[in-house]
Amino acid sequence: MRLRSRVAIWCGKLACTMSRRLGKGSGSSLPGRVARKIDPEILSVMSGMVREKIIAVTGTNGKTTTTSLMAHVLTQSGKRVVWNRMGANLMDGAITSFVQAAGKSGRLDADYACIEVDEMASVRVFPLLKPDCVLVTNIFRDQLDRTCEVDITCGQIQKAMQTVPEAKLITNCDDICSYTLAAGCRNPKLTFGIGERIADDMPVGTGESVFCPSCGCRLEYDFVHYGQLGVYHCPDCGLARPEPDMTVTDVVFGDGAYSFTLDGRRIESGAQAPYNVYNTLSVYTALYAVGGPREGFEQAIGAFDYGNNRECAYQIGGAHVQLYLTKNPVGFQQKIFLIRRDPAPKDIIIQINDTVLDGEDVSWLWDVDFSYLHEAGVASIVTVGTRGADMEVRLKYEDIASRLGRGIREAVEELTKRGSRNLYIITNYSGLYPTIKMLDDMQAAGKEGISQ
Questions:
Q1: CA distances (Å), 272 to each of 78, 238, 257, 277, in order?
Q2: Please, what's the b/e burial string for 363-395 (b: 16 or more CB within 10 A of its CB; e: otherwise)?
Q3: CA nearest 324: which of 246, 418, 436?
Q4: Neighbours of 92 (CB within 10 A)
Q5: Cys-Cys link to 395, which of 286, 294, 320, 400 (CB 3.0-4.6 A)?
Q6: Looking at residue 204, what is its pLDDT?
Q7: 232/221 Cα distance (integer angstroms)
Q8: 249-261 per-position pLDDT tens digit
Q9: d(CA 292, CA 132)
């Protein structure tokens, strides 16, 4: 390794240490930014140290969980894995994952790298990362002021794939947007999909690209899982969802989690949501594509926590508190599905912000079908955040009563003491980690009070 790269890694590590000691953040991106300033080619240098395979995960929803799940399976197989566990998925976040994994000498001891990559950043990251496999989870509308419509997102990923022509492309063939994306790429391809209903009571919500990409006729569906994911065909030109290379069968939801058969293996997962069945299937498909280890896959999945800071559960003051992240219409619709599936009375706090992290355009709230909350046994709803008033207005148009709160801590303290004792919190991205920190502290304080 050249001296410049070694110095870049050392300085990146120092920046991470200083950031944490000074309380300036977790150091999920700063080390990469510092290292890249010193050596613009540092990502290429470090990815070249990976002994076996590099897998990039991109797409709209599920990137962080899928990357975490893949790293977990590989680690359980005895492999050493680099991955961006904090979910920082732009260029600097990807570099940081390598910098933090390097030893004091600057050398990397890793068999695999599983790197989550933002869709719009893929054009810059892929040429340096040089992945052996690119897994696209799905394509939905997300952060409209940054990514615009789904065809632009697909176009960016297609451009990125042109820079890594040998990389295998893994896509969800139940998603017409991903189908269209893959058709525009010359890379070797594999698909995954689910050909049977996985939830009969699923609120479908708003789908994307409901028209045939070949002739423009409106697509017809045998059934829809959620969003636009399902078994589709064009009644005019005959285009149809292909048979996937990898699928799950005999999907059963029982005791709060999904079980299913995958490549002859019966998987007893902890997945509470249908989208995590897809995430698990996609991980297996990617490992199959690169010849990765799949022995013990069932045991690894059974031991995996799908919460992953996106779906955390707490006990505060004797109340059950469930935190969900949502950032776009399809994601929010899925969280409503999970809330409605709980038959017990419940309170809900919805925190909507409009920072650059979230997307400053929150018009997507009008694409969520909130009417399903009428059937969810909701005792009260409090809206908070910089766009809490907008959320309150949105619910008013569905004849759903809510009130605007002054802050999330005050709302949590009130509802855990005097509410239904069953509280759901939905937040978009900028509120996620501050809310996790707050809930961690409140839960810990409650435990200390009991012990005293």
A1: 27, 35, 5, 9
A2: ebbeebebebbeebebebbbbbbbbbebbbebb
A3: 436
A4: 22
A5: 400
A6: 58
A7: 4
A8: 999 999 889 999 9
A9: 12
Give the residue carrying structure tokens 């309150």.
Answer: 392
According to DSSP, residue 266 is labeled E
- Encoded amino acid at 329, one letter: P
> Taking a C-beta distance cutoff of 8 angstroms, is the pair 77, 160 a contact?
no
The secondary structure of 109-129 as a DSSP string is --SEEEEE--TTTHHHHHHHH
Inter-helix orientation angle 150-162/176-183, to 10°: 30
Handedness of CA 219, 220, 225, 227 (dihedral sign): positive
Of residues 287, 274, 213, 293, the one with CA closest to residue 245: 287
| pTM of this structure | 0.91
End-to-end CA distance of the chain: 55
Nearest partner of 120 among 150, 97, 95, 99, judged by Cα: 150
Read off the tokens for 172.
């969800």
**Cβ partners under 8 Å of residue 4, min gap 6:** 38, 39
C-alpha to C-alpha distance for 217 and 340, rounded to whole angstroms: 34
Is residue 176 within 8 Å of residue 228, measured between CB atoms?
yes
Residues in the chain with pLDDT values less than 50: 451-452
Tokens, residue 151: 């065809």
* Residue 400 tokens, joined: 């759903």
Please, what's the b/e burial string for 405-432 (b: 16 or more CB within 10 A of its CB; e: otherwise)? Answer: beebbebbebbbeebbbbbbbbbbbbbb
**Cα separation, 318 vs 141, whole angstroms:** 38
Residues constituting the chain: 452
